[in-house]
Amino acid sequence: MELPCQRCQKARATVHLTDCTGGEPRERHLCEDCAEQEGLTLQQNAGITSILEKFVQHSKKVEEIARLTCPKCGISFAEFRNSGQLGCPHDYTAFEKLLLPLLERAHDGRTEHVGRQPGVAGPARSRRTTLTQLRLDMDRAVEAEEYELAAKLRDQIKALSNVED
Amino acid sequence: MSKIDDLTKQTGEWLRGEGPMSEVVISSRIRLARNLKAYPFLSRADESQHRRIYRELSDSIANSPLGDDIFFADFETLSELDRQVLVERHLVSRQHAEGEGTRGVAVSPNERRALMVNEEDHLRIQVLRSGLQLDALWDEIREIDTGIEKQLEYAYHERYGYLTACPTNVGTGLRVSVMLHLPALKLVKEIDRVFRAAQDMKLAVRGIYGEGTEAVGDFYQVSNQITLGRTEEEIIEEFGKTIIPKMVEYELKVRDAMAKERTYQLDDKVWRAYGTMNNARAMSSDEALFLLSHLRMGVAMGRFKDLDVHTINRLLLQTQPAHLQKIHHETLTGEQRSITRAEFVRARLREYQARNN
């Protein structure tokens, strides 16, 4: 469908938008020149450029992440993502930041072992140590503005505190 | 005569048909995933490391209190058929049987303990019992774990617990699996609702042979997926006191309702299964599972007295492809197996009738 520009009525309208600045939303179809004169295309271009910039930055980050390797076993994070298998126990330290969101997803928001530990019979870590760690984690989550995680941690703290009392 | 041949003559722990809630709960299993600190995980370990891990773990198992009552099956010298027998008996995973490199399993002759070495993790300790017996299993596996741990150093992290090759097992490394027989829920099409509820509770529901297998014959394995941030006792208690009893209760309620309101439909299913088993001239292993499932329901509900659970359980195992071939001492093609299976089933039913009339 070819529409003429609503402003100059000559050139073909290539910029289509809905203007909501007045009371009623208004459909607008303009040619590139008229749109530019109204200051519309420039803004849009600026938007696209900044989105592209962000995208490029993001891909760089993704590449960096993928290239991260464990100094002990030499596996890269990308290799782990492909196979689902870590290379050695040290990966949990080497990839810690990247693994945390994965652990949260797999274990319903929990990232702290509270069970048995080597050399200790019976339930291992005391609840108090866990609580301290959880509170630290929650503070960190709030600082990083990860509110969903913070809320989950808050619930865990609540549940544990109740048991203790 | 190998140890594996000896096994094929018995029913195996998980089909003893005893224990709490055994009318619905076939068996309970607990496994712990453990890795040695000094080695990379298996996907990153070379063949000589695989061999060293295997030797260290076999020695530690043999030197632990467990050692006197266990035999080792080294998969590099074991035939494919024997490895398949172990899969059908639920002593090793399919992945382990079909994998490569130095690996094996330590099995107790009563088949209640099976320790896989070099599966996905360096060590996977498993204990099994028929019926719902999670507390007893937990005591047992904790003791085995402690006995091995005294001799070597596991990969353990202050914050993440026992480290595993896949982060989905990290923390406790604990998986609780309970095998359920839910024919009534399947018949009234309530089974999907049960599955959805299970998913909401972060549980996995799988077929009779575990990961990646279809549910055949209304047998389902329910297991936990969360291994981090909860104690072993919490996970086990939730399973044993809440999740499984609720599912069992639901199945039994539907069985009761069916016995009252849809008696002819129920009896028809059971007797048709019996008719087919008595007369079929060819039978696939899936069909055998399907028919045996209906018969098991009839027997468990006390509506069918021409067979007992023990015979059904034996058939469940012995009609599986590897067992069938083991019993007949020869490799059979798919078609030969179907014919042999049908003959085998008819012969066992005739035996039972002769014994009980």
Shape call of chain A? elongated
What percent strand of chain B? 5-15%
Count of extended strands of chain A: 2
Radius of gyration of chain A: 27 Å
Q: Could you estimate the helical fraction of the residues of chain A in percent?
A: 40-55%
Quick one: which chains have the greatest interface?
Answer: A-B, 35 and 41 residues
Strand order of the largest sheet of chain B: 2-3-4-5-1-8-10-9
Q: Give the helices and strands of chain A as they follow along the chain.
A: EEHHHHHHH
Query: Major sheet of chain A: order of its strands?
Result: 1-2
Instruction: Please give the count of helices of chain B.
Output: 13
Strand content of chain A: 5-15%
What separation lies between the terminal Cα atoms of chain B?
35 Å
- Annotated CATH homologous superfamily of the largest domain in chain B: Glutamine synthetase/guanido kinase, catalytic domain
- State the share of residues found in helices of chain B, binned by percent: 40-55%
Tell me about this structure.
The complex is a heterodimer of chains A (165) and B (357). Chain A has 165 residues and is mainly α. Chain A contains seven helices and two strands. Chain A has helices spanning 32-37, 41-67, 77-83, 91-94, 96-106, 127-143, 147-164; strands spanning 15-19, 26-30. Chain A has a two-stranded antiparallel ribbon with strand order 1-2. The longest helix of chain A is centred in the N-terminal third of the chain and has 27 residues, at 41-67. Chain B has two domains: 3-254, Glutamine synthetase/guanido kinase, catalytic domain (Creatine Kinase, Chain A, domain 2, 2-Layer Sandwich); 263-356. Helix content of chain B is 48%, strand content 15%. Chain B contains 13 helices and ten strands. In chain B, a hairpin with a 5-residue loop joins strand 3 and strand 4 (113-117). At the A-B interface, helix 5 of A face helix 5, strand 6 and strand 7 of B.
